[in-house]
Specification:
eight-stranded mixed sheet, disordered N terminus
């Protein structure tokens, strides 16, 4: 009997060993039972939708355009707050600014969310090498988040990389120097060439293990410094001037600003009109900076292909916000207007069949976290404020969100709480904004803009016009109801 029992035990054990792996294969997330897809997460600072793949005929961006031909291009993607720190905190946590409590350039999101699991941290916890090269979080050392990464960040803080300039007269300046610099130097003389070199080195080292590689480029953020060859791609007299250089009619003063970020540079007037030749030079510098960064992106894509990783890597290109180049009389960012809140967003994924396809569905920066999780076969954390865009990527014309939600405070730059917060909702045709007292919620100013088919600039504030009262009521209700009510019906 004992021999029979032994044989029975052996047989049962063998059956269990054969069955258990199959049971786990059904129970465990797909990412643990199948080959993990990699993620190349490319951030470009201050990049607006002025790209070849978005229809611009002057800008030269062959590599971003190449990515667009292999992915989904989002025509209506919006950030949550159009300035670096708050926008990046929102995107990387998947939470909106009133949850992160990051409305300025100094507050860290972990003050309000000490236990938040960020996007790169989530991939790290799911077996990925999560690595950072360049600017992903806001630039200062105090804004970094080491727990997000598998290893120390590389070149995440400008001070650790080197100066922003090559010319001694600029590099010796204690603060800001010239807004532009054009010198005949190799790409690696400036920070983004160095970032690309470092990212390629990292890519070669991690190619055999699943990775989430975040690469952050600083240009076209001011100063507009790029090697001369990129300036030479353009003839200055062919650089277009701003389409609409005057502010919208009837705009409340609080919605505007004096372009302080630009005016701090030594070659730009502290106040008053900026001369036309300087405007054209600045725009030339922005174009050159974009093309310089585009070429670094091309080098990254080439290396990915060289390593045989292209068919198993999700590639996402995004910007933290848009940018004004003299439109509406504004420079840089920090408004709720279209040029600042609308961002370029392109996603290429191996498991999405649509390639070179555009979608007009309204999406937001907070949607990236759940989207990348789903594309990688990971479960989507419940606490996120965004919506996975995967269904939209699979059916680009399907009905999607009713609106995107952005906000901007006044004042905003430092830690003191804002006096007024501008809450803004963007639908297919309109933008409605309320400037609310931050303490008691009293509405101090309102804005309503209609976007025509021939452009996306704000022309006239329609908030006081009676013929728009019903639209204003509808949009106010949408703003008050919040982002959850703007989701597609089955996602509410």
């Amino acid at each position: 009997m004992s021999e029979i029992k032994k044989m029975t035990t052996v047989i049962i054990t063998m059956l269990v060993l054969m069955v258990v792996p199959n049971l786990y294969a059904q129970i465990l997330p797909r990412s643990t039972t199948a080959k993990k897809v990699n993620v190349l997460f490319i951030a470009v600072d201050d990049l607006r939708n002025q790209l070849g793949c978005y229809g611009d005929s002057v800008i030269i961006t062959p590599n971003i355009d190449r990515l667009a031909k292999n992915g989904i291009v989002f025509n209506n993607a919006y950030c949550q707050q159009a300035v670096c720190g708050p926008s990046r905190a929102s995107l990387l946590t998947g939470r909106r600014p009133d949850v992160t409590k990051v409305w300025d350039l100094e507050t860290h999101f972990r003050k309000a969310l000490p236990n938040a699991v960020t996007l790169p941290q989530y991939f790290k916890e799911n077996g990925y090498q999560s690595l950072c090269v360049g600017k992903i979080y806001h630039d200062p050392a105090a804004s970094q988040d080491s727990i997000s990464w598998s290893a120390p960040e590389i070149m995440a803080v400008t001070g650790t990389v080197g100066h922003k300039y090559v010319l001694k007269k600029n590099s010796k300046a204690k603060g800001k120097a010239a807004a532009v610099e054009c010198v005949n130097v190799p790409d690696s003389a400036y920070v983004d060439g160095m970032v690309c070199n470092a990212a390629i080195k990292v890519l070669r080292e991690i190619k055999d293990k699943p990775f989430f590689l975040a690469v952050g480029f600083r240009r076209p953020h001011l100063p507009f410094t790029a090697p001369k060859k990129y300036w030479d791609y353009y003839k200055r007299d062919e650089i277009p001037m701003p389409k609409q250089p005057a502010p919208p009619q009837n705009v409340p003063e609080i919605a505007l600003h004096n372009s302080t970020e630009l005016r701090g540079y030594t070659d730009v007037p502290d106040e008053g009109p900026i001369p036309p030749d300087k405007i054209r030079q600045l725009r030339h510098g922005y174009y050159a900076s974009v093309t310089y960064t585009d070429m670094q992106i091309g080098r990254l894509l080439d290396e990915l292909n060289k390593q045989g990783l292209m068919d198993n890597t999700i590639i996402v290109l995004w910007s933290d916000h848009g940018y004004h180049l003299g439109e509406l009389g504004l420079w840089c960012k920090s408004t709720n207007f279209e040029s600042d809140t609308r961002i370029p967003l392109i996603i290429s994924a191996p498991n999405i069949k649509n390639k070179g396809v555009y979608t007009d569905g309204i999406v937001e920066s907070v949607d990236l976290y759940p989207t990348l999780a789903q594309l990688a076969g990971l479960s989507i954390p419940d606490e996120l404020d965004g919506l996975s865009m995967v269904p939209l990527m699979e059916a680009p014309e399907r009905p999607w969100k009713k609106a995107a939600f952005s906000q901007f405070p006044r004042p905003w730059m430092y830690k003191n709480l804002p006096r007024v917060m501008g809450y803004s909702v963007r639908t297919k045709d309109f933008r409605y904004t309320e400037w609310r007292n931050f303490k008691n919620g009293t509405i101090e100013f309102t804005e309503l803009y209609r976007y025509q088919a021939n452009g996306r600039l704000e022309e006239k504030n329609l908030a006081a016009m009676k013929q728009y009262d019903n639209i204003k009521i509808t949009l106010k209700q949408l703003l008050d109801d919040g982002w959850q009510k703007a989701l597609p019906v089955k996602n509410r």
